[in-house]
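Re: the multi-chain job from yesterday

Posting the exact lines I submitted so nobody has to dig through the queue logs.
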Amino acid sequence: MSSAKLVAESGKILDVASKDAPLTVRGLTVSYGNKPAVFSVDASIPAGSMTAIIGPNGAGKSTFLKGALGVVPRLSGEVRIFGKLFEDARDRVAYVPQRASVDWDFPARVIDVVLMGLYGSVGLFRLWQARHREQAMECLKRVGMSDFAERQIGQLSGGQQQRVFLARALAQNAEFYLLDEPFAGVDAATERAIVSVLKELKSEGRTVVCVHHDLSTVAEYFDRVLLINVRRIAEGPVETTFTAENLQETYGGRLAATHIDELHLA
Amino acid sequence: MGFGDYFISALFLQAGYNSALVAIGAGLLGLSAGSAGAFIFLRKRALVSDAISHATLPGVGLAFIIMVAFGSDGRWLPGLILGSAISSAIGLLMVEWITRKTRLTEDAAIGAVLSVFFGFGIVLLTVIQTMSSGRQAGLENFLLGSTAGMLISEATTIAVAGAMAAGFVFLLRRPMTLVAFDPEYAATTGVNVRNIDLAMMGLALIVTVIGLKIVGLILIVALLIIPPVAARFWTNQVGKMIGIAAVIGGLSGYVGAVLSAAHAALPTGPIIVLVAFGFFMISALFSPLRGGLASALRHQRFQRRVHRRQGLLSLARREPIYDGLTIRILRRAGMIRADGVATARGRIAAEKAARDEARWAMARRMLPDDSTIERYDGLTPIERMMTPDQIAEIDRMIQNAQTTQGAKA
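And the result, structure tokens for all chains:
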């Protein structure tokens, strides 16, 4: 079985590793219409790791995340979050959707968006208190956006929007962060800010998974990779799994050999 | 008593108990429509509410026929409301079902449901006109609304239901905000997006059926959508927008009902909608935040600042200025003479502009990730964005850089 082989690669025993792992996926299939976008994918994300989900455009990276979180309906497959159904582990998970998935002309200030991350803890009926605001400001400070709290979100640059989304997820104070293309189309300052926050999260023992498209930064930012092209190609530590053969298999002819050479792979 | 006098006295609830109650009922209906409509507008589903309202008509007809069959005159409002609610709920679920289960998009589903239900309703109304029993007269008022001859019990029902719908909007404001802004994220935090969407449309349905009598089914969508659209001009915050939309909707309903009551021939729905449109026009033109006038002024002022800054930088670099607007702006500010040569004042301002540009360039190099630099619009005086200490520090860095360069040379 391929997953057994993988586990051997990372030097752990399957059952121990996957029992209460932040994310365990077995045979996940999601389809739009009658064409599977993700087909029978297995994955196991160990606690405290930082994993990049990599694959060509349209390979189902984002769909895999959404399927795992139940944002899009699953056709088949099993998902466990910390060994439980997602419904029972929801408050331990924070999701950062793609920036382009929302309308930024929505009537909200930056602080309002971050406060959305606290809806779960505030509840339906109670009003905001000073401490909620402080909490939200703290999260904005972590992404370097506290000066922008009162700005209308439509006035932000793409990178600033991305950082606001990250701040909203930070407000949830989760153990497991799943980000969909957090570095897509952002400026260098934003990329640095996001990476440093993600590394902070990791150093606090939290788990991070990012859909990622920039192969040149994989080894620098992440310690594990999950290679997907509709099917799972490979999963494991960057050193052993982020290899030229695996990339060739994931990207097929779309990744020129010269490009792979430039990545200085193991 | 003339129209004007009656209008004034009715506006202040002095024109009799009955018309006062109708006006209050219409006001509360508008209040609930404006606040519920705010979320429908933000969720970009205005046309779904149009399908819902047109889908009420067969329910009205069938309820009338059933009530007549049981021996009543068929005009009992709660019965008609119940019938319309059932048929519009069926219409809503059909739109949902078509969108989810087929490859048709929502607009196609809306078009299909709206026209089929409305057509069926018109057929039923025609059949009813030929019936020998029942009191058919006035059923057509459900199309455009009428407050003439409204019963006190009917006005009370509408007022209470309207107030309750507004209360529901308040209770559900957080999940509805989340779903309207970011449904995928909402789903991961445990919000049932489908149920919230249904609740949102359910509120539109309630507003529609209680508004049948006053506004009519053809125009109720306007009362749901115009108030939030108008409110959007005044604020950038969801909470405030809902409040403003509720107030605009409430005022439109109230003033419109009073206006139409003052003149029996005026249908109520269109008058209410026209009043709402008046609020929209005022908002679109005169709101200081997003109104057309303020935007145009802001744009013009910004353009002038850009030209002034560009002109000063050209002066500092001793380049000739060709742009007519730039020359006019500098002339008026006393920065240049008629022949284009800088005045003493112009030279000082130009030097300052050039120095500030150099300071920002240095700041960008020193602190590329600082949020002050992110906030800088390219025009604001540096003193308003940085402390004197920071500016002095930057000047020191510039001097150091110049000395090293001089040493190298």
